[in-house]
């Protein structure tokens, strides 16, 4: 007899009715004796904004290359079919799964005939215990690893189920197991599948990792015009002193398109940094915030430490940098009346941000058009429709911290 399939999800919000999607799926197999026999998990590209990143911890950069639900659906069906599907707050998780399967063109899964909710079972098996997963697990000294990560929550729920199996008579479980083995499940559609992609252990990319993806070309034919195009994109990408995964991809793609080699990119990065140093020293004084700014750019562009140390001691005076960088590194600037758009959930209500934007002389807009000067995103790698349109129009996307700096003058 197949046994149980414990599932846990992370989602963009609380309701598939309002467009929320799955961003992470975990499945744990438990046999009828309560032993864990297999575990699987994957991130899922929801093809929309990720919602409360502070809750689930999944960033847009993490899911950019993750499979879409339809690309893991057949394998997910294989892991669920014939088993009792178990979840903590099953109504939530199974509701999302049913909505995703329907969106992908599948018939309804057999959740009604063969599912169990460990939260509802607690009323019968753990009278007096709380309803949260942490409360139920605490009754058995079950530790939950990284809370709000699907794999950790599914594993903890599987251990909780194993304890439940010991509390009730066998007859309590056999009826559901029998129904699960006889239930009719949707057939695979044969849609193009991709390997599951678990959440990475370390989600922070190494600074300047995009450089190693640029080809080492010999010989190289790119001249000053091509180099200036690369510098212009670099200037826009570093506007908020953060290099998103989308921006890094764009730099790699442009370097390849223009025929610029990795070594030339490294040289251009150093020249760009030198130009920033000269701007910072223009008034003869290097302030603390300017030092921090130079250090941030040096880290993002893998500028050698000795070059940063020398910059702090004095301006570079690099004529070559001024010849090639006709665009000043601080060329982007907002003007009164410029249109700004917010996407995603920032730390304060959007109405409050709009009030502050208007007070600073700018115009908050609800949608991205070619007249918009800047988009502010909760996550600069946002997959929202607004962010996608901004990238298509070449409009810079920055994070909340940069909006704070702009509004502060």
Automatic annotation (TrEMBL):
Gene Ontology biological-process entries: DNA replication
InterPro entries linked to this entry: BRCT_dom, BRCT_dom_sf, DnaQ, Ribonucl_H, RNaseH-like_sf, RNaseH_sf, TerB-like
Family annotation (SMART domains): EXOIII
Pfam families per the UniProt record, alphabetical: BRCT, RNase_T
Domain (Exonuclease) ranges: 3-170
Record flagged with keyword Acetylation: no
A molecular function (GO) term: 3'-5' exonuclease activity
Keywords per UniProt: Exonuclease, Hydrolase, Nuclease
Aminoacyl-tRNA synthetase is among the record's keywords: no
CDD domains to which the protein is assigned, alphabetical: DEDDh
Cellular component GO terms held in the UniProt record: cytosol
UniProt name for this protein: DNA polymerase III subunit epsilon
Organism: Agromyces protaetiae
């Amino acid at each position: 007899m197949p046994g149980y399939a414990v599932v846990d999800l992370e989602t963009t919000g609380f309701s598939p009715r309002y467009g929320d999607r799955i961003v992470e799926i975990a499945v744990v197999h438990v046999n009828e004796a309560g032993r864990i026999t297999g575990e699987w998990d994957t991130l899922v590209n929801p093809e929309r904004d990720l919602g409360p990143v502070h809750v689930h911890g999944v960033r847009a950069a993490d899911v950019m290359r993750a499979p879409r639900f339809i690309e893991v659906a057949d394998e997910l069906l294989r892991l669920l079919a014939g088993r009792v599907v178990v979840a903590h707050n099953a109504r939530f998780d199974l509701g999302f799964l049913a909505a995703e399967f329907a969106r992908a063109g599948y018939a309804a899964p057999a959740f009604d005939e063969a599912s169990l909710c460990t939260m509802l079972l607690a009323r019968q098996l753990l009278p007096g215990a709380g309803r949260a997963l942490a409360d139920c697990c605490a009754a058995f000294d079950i530790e939950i690893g990284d809370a709000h990560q699907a794999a950790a929550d599914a594993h903890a729920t599987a251990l909780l189920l194993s304890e439940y199996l010991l509390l009730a008579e066998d007859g309590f479980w056999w009826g559901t197991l029998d129904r699960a083995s006889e239930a009719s499940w949707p057939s695979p559609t044969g849609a193009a599948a991709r390997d599951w992609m678990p959440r990475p252990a370390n989600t922070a990319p190494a600074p300047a990792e995009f450089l190693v993806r640029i080809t080492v070309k010999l010989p190289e034919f790119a001249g000053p015009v091509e180099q200036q195009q690369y510098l212009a994109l670099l200037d826009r990408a570093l506007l908020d002193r953060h290099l998103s995964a989308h921006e890094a991809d764009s730099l790699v793609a442009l370097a390849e398109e223009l025929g610029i080699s990795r070594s030339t990119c490294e040289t251009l990065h150093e020249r760009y940094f030198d130009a920033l140093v000269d701007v910072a020293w223009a008034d003869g004084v290097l302030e603390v915030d300017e030092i921090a700014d130079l250090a941030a750019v040096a880290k993002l562009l893998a500028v050698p430490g000795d070059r940063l140390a020398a910059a702090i001691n004095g301006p570079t005076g690099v004529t070559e940098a001024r010849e090639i960088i006709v665009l000043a590194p601080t060329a982007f600037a907002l003007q009164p009346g410029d249109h700004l758009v917010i996407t995603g959930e920032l730390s304060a209500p959007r109405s409050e941000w709009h009030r502050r934007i208007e007070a600073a002389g700018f115009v908050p807009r609800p949608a991205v058009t070619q007249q918009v000067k800047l988009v502010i995103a909760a996550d600069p790698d946002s997959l929202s429709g607004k962010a996608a349109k901004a990238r298509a129009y070449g409009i810079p996307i920055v994070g909340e911290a940069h909006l704070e700096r702009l509004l502060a003058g």
